[in-house]
Write a structure and sequence with these properties.
By secondary structure, this protein is an alpha+beta fold. A hairpin with a 4-residue loop joins strand 7 and strand 8 (about 165-170). The radius of gyration is 23 Å and the shape is elongated. It has one domain (about 1-220). The strands form 3 sheets. The chain has a 5-stranded antiparallel sheet. Strands 3-6 form a two-stranded antiparallel ribbon. Helices cover about 30% and strands about 15% of the residues. It holds the Pfam family DUF674.
Length: about 220
């Protein structure tokens, strides 16, 4: 990603980004709150979400309903979506299901989290069973997987990313208009800076985005 920096004001005016960056930024909108808290760290969260997350972590199993899994809240699996990005290494949904290991009168219970306690006998539900998709679902799932692999936005376009993370297609005219919007008088103060978004930078962007309108400046300057 290429940043245009006002060195005098020490701020990022806007950035030029490709498909991978924009797909990642849009994927942040699909993150469950529990996943965001886990990635950032409960103690680093602004507001009450961190305290809420720790409350579930500390909650004794005796207060949890039989068959309910704390991991479903603490480590939720994201639904398959074209906006999902692999940058943060998020879990993806699977069609794996498990039954009770004793299977003694427990045929009515199934879970998608291995090790969940059986609501009937409290044994661990660890025996994997076969999932039979409905007619037409295989083709639909394959199409969804292809769309997810292709990402969310088109790759032949360059995008403008504002300091606030607002995204729009880039053009020469739009870039000139942006410079006029910022009322830049001294063009010699402008400097290009190329940055790479990896796991660390992705987490910093995720952490800053709910509380800042100057995310790119906060993360990269």
């Amino acid at each position: 990603m290429k940043l245009l920096v006002d060195t005098k004001a020490r701020r990022v005016l806007f950035a030029e980004a490709g498909k991978d960056v924009v797909d990642f930024l849009f994927s942040l909108l699909a993150l469950p709150i529990g996943t965001a808290v886990k990635l950032i760290g409960a103690k680093s969260m602004v507001g009450s979400a961190g305290d809420l997350y720790r409350s579930v972590e500390k909650l004794d199993g005796t207060y949890v309903q039989p068959g309910a899994a704390k991991d479903a809240i603490l480590r939720p699996v994201m639904a398959r979506s074209p906006a999902n990005s692999a940058l943060l290494g998020l879990p993806t949904p699977s069609n794996r299901f498990f039954r009770c290991s004793s299977f003694s009168g427990c045929r009515d219970y199934v879970t998608d989290v291995s090790g969940t306690k059986c609501p009937r006998c409290s044994c661990a539900m660890t025996i994997q069973i076969q999932y039979a998709p409905p007619a037409g679902a295989i083709a639909q799932n394959a199409a969804t997987a292809v769309a997810a692999a292709d990402g969310f936005v088109r790759g032949v376009v360059t995008y403008t990313v504002m300091d606030s993370l607002a995204v729009s297609p880039m053009s020469a005219i739009s870039s000139i208009a942006l410079l006029n919007t910022f009322a830049v008088r001294d063009l010699t103060a402008l400097q290009e800076k190329i940055v790479h978004i990896g796991y660390k930078e992705g987490l910093e962007i995720l952490k800053a985005s709910p509380q800042s309108k100057t995310v790119l400046t906060d993360v990269f300057l």
